[in-house]
Specification:
The complex is a heterodimer of chains A (108) and B (116). Chain A is 0% helix and 54% strand. Chain A contains no helices and eleven strands. In chain A, the strands form two sheets. In chain A, strands 2, 4, 5, 6, 9, 10 and 11 form a seven-stranded mixed beta sheet that branches. In chain A, strands 1-3-8-7 form a four-stranded antiparallel beta sheet, with no helix packed on it. In chain A, strand 7 and strand 8 form a beta hairpin. The N and C termini of chain A lie far apart (36 Å). Chain B is an all-beta fold. In chain B, 0% of the residues lie in helices and 53% in strands. In chain B, strands 2, 4, 5, 6, 9, 10 and 11 form a seven-stranded mixed beta sheet that branches. A four-stranded antiparallel beta sheet of chain B has the order 1-3-8-7, with no helix packed on it. In chain B, strand 7 and strand 8 form a beta hairpin. The chains are: A mainly beta (108), B mainly beta (116). Chains A and B meet through strand 5, strand 9 and strand 10 of A and strand 5 and strand 10 of B.
Chain lengths: 108, 116
């Protein structure tokens, strides 16, 4: 079973600052990794798939990178709407999917 | 546009069966894979399983013995059953479309509480 570990668990930043979120896989997932944003009381929203492709309608300030076991979601300049919890998600083969534990981005 | 809506009881007694249905609109259920995901209060996301339009399924190994996902193409719906529930099954349950291996459309979620 592949485990995704997200760090840090929480991040306190101000609007306009850069956010850097990490997701580490216990074994290689190639580029089969996605990122989601979840705001309180809402469903998760797909941001990034295939490690670095933005989903339709996602602003360019969201950038995904990485391959193998180490992945990063970068938000270049935080806007008020970006304060939320972010999850990474993988597939290790067609038979199994899973999520990381999440990183909460809070307003400083 | 694609919309998903979960429905079912919000309260289930311990040891009984949790049953939820997801109604899909804006797209035929026959053209994608469909999935259930849950989120205990204040915690992270847990993938439960998925079903293809032809009815083939795959489940999270940690839940496999208690979970069944089925599909009704005539109603554009798919369903979830979790047997022998306990308080640890209390969660918001989401249905979602699985495109390739990503969840691109989600329902709003429904809270299911397991309590006597």
């Amino acid at each position: 079973e592949i485990v995704l570990t997200q760090s840090p668990a929480s991040l306190s930043l101000s609007p306009g600052e850069r956010a850097t979120l990490s997701c580490r896989a216990s074994q290689s997932v190639s580029t089969f990794l996605a990122w989601y944003q979840q705001k309180p009381g809402q469903s998760p929203r797909l941001l990034i798939y295939d490690a670095s492709s933005r989903a339709p309608g996602i602003p360019a300030r969201f950038r995904g990178s990485g391959s193998g076991t180490d992945f990063t979601l970068t938000i270049s300049s935080l806007e008020p709407a970006d304060f939320a919890v972010y999850y990474c998600q993988h597939r290790n083969n067609w038979l199994s999917l899973g999520f990381g534990g999440g990183t909460k981005v809070e307003i400083k | 546009q694609v919309q998903l809506q979960e429905s079912g009881p919000g309260l289930v007694k311990p040891s009984e069966t949790l049953s939820l249905t997801c109604t899909v609109s804006g797209v035929s259920i026959s053209t994608y894979y469909w999935s259930w995901i849950r989120q205990p209060p204040g915690k992270g996301l847990e993938w439960i399983g998925y079903i293809s339009s032809s009815g083939s399924t795959n489940y999270n190994p940690s839940l496999k013995s208690r979970v069944t996902i089925s599909i009704d193409s005539s109603k554009n719906q798919f369903s979830l059953k979790v047997n022998s529930v306990n308080t640890a099954d209390t969660a918001v349950y989401y249905c979602a479309r699985l495109k390739q291996i990503w969840f691109d459309y989600w329902g709003q979620g429904t809270l299911v509480t397991v309590s006597s």
